[in-house]
What does this fold into?
Amino acid sequence: MKTQIAICGYGTVGQGVRRVLTENRKEIEERCGFSPEIAYILDLRDFRGDPFEDRLVRDFTEIENDPDVAVVVETMGGLHPAFEFTARALRAGKSVVTSNKAVVAEYGRELLSIAEESGVLYLFEASCGGGIPIIRPLRTSLCTERIDSISGILNGTTNYILTRMAEEMVPYEQALAEAQAKGYAEKDPTADVEGYDACRKIAILGSIAFGTYIDYRTVPTEGITKITVEDIWDAVRKGEKYRLIAEAKQTPEGISVSVAPRRVSESSPFYSVNGVFNAILVHGNMVGDVFFAGQGAGMDATGSAVSSDVLEALAYANRNEIRSEKKC
It folds into this structure.
């Protein structure tokens, strides 16, 4: 049975995957009948003292040419060389699992096509909701539904900022600085605060929910940078909160997709989603509303989502060998 995997990118998410697969090894073996073995970790940095230091490599070709590696975990971030490494791995007959929403939004269709041609999988559960399982439920549990809409709080940075502005009545700039100090916002927060991150995520989710490609570049997108303390106070006085909502829905004119800050009342499921938490609301024509909430980012949460895809990919690679009822 092939159980060897390679992790490309050993930052927060890559280390989270390693942590989940090692610390939960016993539970994984009991449930699935097998456990992934980390054979390679690709990164240009040194990690002296790391328990997997001896598996660090700097040349992707080593991974690409090793027939024992069944799954490549891409947690590098950015478009390049993440896209190129992904395509090469798929063409080499290796499934690829990723948390990289930028690559999925930009090249997802192409990579899925390459995966199909190569008889492997391209999985990206962690790309849209961190630790929240949403892509797999859309493809399995809700596959009999006609999805009418999918909406959500898809960015923890902006949700934290809006939460702090409402709690303390501090201006946007101060709340952003606090988020950066706590590690919730990047030094350059543009992708988060201008809504670009949420835009890519709703394009991915909408494409899956409605079975048609949504180009994130066409989605009207507005961030939170123009929201003032006065706006926040007016919302609070009326029993409302600001939330950055990404939404894709069916309309008589077709599929409508948008990202913008909106006021939500206590009747909204998004009202009580505070801090860095994310939440997603799916409405099906039969099941009605289905609500998902949890940590939208972070080492352990995202590492857990990536690891679940790793197990699915390994089960697929060994589908002719696995006979145990303990399947993932």
Observations:
- The chain has a mean pLDDT of 96.
